[in-house]
Amino acid sequence: MRSSYDSSVATVGAVLWRQVAPICLAYALVGISFGAITVSAGIPGWVAPAMSAAVFAGSAQFAAIGIVMGGGGLVAAILAGLVINARMLAYGIAVADATGRHRWHRFFGAHLITDVNTALVLGVSDPCRRRRLFWGAGGLIFVCWNMAVLAGVMLGDHLGDVHALGLDAVLPTILLALVADALHGARVRAAVGAGALASLVGLAVLPPGWPVLASLLGCVVLVWPCRRPGWQGQP
Amino acid sequence: MSWLWLIAAIALGTYLFRLIGPLAGARWQPGTALAELSEIAPVVLLVSVALVATLSGEESRGVSIDAARIAGVAVGAGLAWRGQTMVMIVVGAAATAALLRLCGA
């Protein structure tokens, strides 16, 4: 699977403009709806912007607010948010080098780790390109997300039904499109397939957040030895 | 006050999850097997995030089949497979789900 232009040779600026800008637009619409939903639910106006800047993870923010508003309680909301974001641990290990070489770059860069810039950096081997993609995409998404949530808080009840726009179909699609190039090699595909199966089973029986973590069980297939010596399953 | 606790607890925990890799990566070089795992685990998680987001709804647990959402994701994934640009993929997925909802699906 290849994009119509080869993103592995395009300049970092071109990737940010042609791939990340449309993603930012979609995330901005979701951010506006997040801000608007919290205000409509009677939550103080500072909560959504503060949460978006400090947590900076959309699905955990929606889940935590949803649980509190549904009467699930503070502790349940905190636990759900943490379980949903636990995947960031695996992302952080994978993109550690892309956050930078200096200690302070790593401290700041860590906060910018998202699904999107992790997926963008995954297939890239050049260290400089990895850093620029990680910081460029992470920074753009951070600015767009927080400005959008602020706008949503100000719009509040005046916003129409965002659900009608089909954004809930866009977010999963974006991740699938970004990760497509990484799905090469039998070992990756076996792990992804087994992980998807574990998530499906988890979805039926586990609380929010856990089905995604259950997918890591799929990595068990990696204990099977490579069929040919020296063959790592990666092109 | 409880909002502050909610934000502080999730923000602190999330930041620590994010920080462990970048801090450890500065001094720790994994062996071959662990290096492979650290490359593949994010791919497995990302596909799972997409799958779970496609198949779950407002309810706290259980599978939720929303025909418009599933069709939108399928069309978007198809466009990605055909090598379309991100704009086309995003618009295709949103338009499919929105049109089906307009038609009452």
From TrEMBL, chain A:
Main location: membrane
Biological process annotations from GO: L-valine transmembrane transport
Annotated transmembrane regions: 20-39, 133-156, 195-224
Keyword Methyltransferase: no
Location in or out of the cell: Cell membrane
Keyword Transmembrane helix assigned: yes
Domain of life according to the entry: Bacteria
Membrane-related topology note: Multi-pass membrane protein
Similarity comment: family membership: Belongs to the AzlC family.
The protein's name in its UniProt record: Branched-chain amino acid permease
Organism in which the protein naturally occurs: Salinisphaera japonica YTM-1
Lineage, uppermost ranks: Bacteria, Pseudomonadati, Pseudomonadota, Gammaproteobacteria, Salinisphaerales
Automatic annotation (TrEMBL), chain B:
Transmembrane segments: 40-56, 87-104
Keywords from the UniProt entry: Membrane, Transmembrane, Transmembrane helix
Domain of life, per lineage: Bacteria
Xref: InterPro entries: Brnchd-chn_aa_trnsp_AzlD (IPR008407)
Protein name: Branched-chain amino acid transporter
Organism listed in the record: Salinisphaera japonica YTM-1
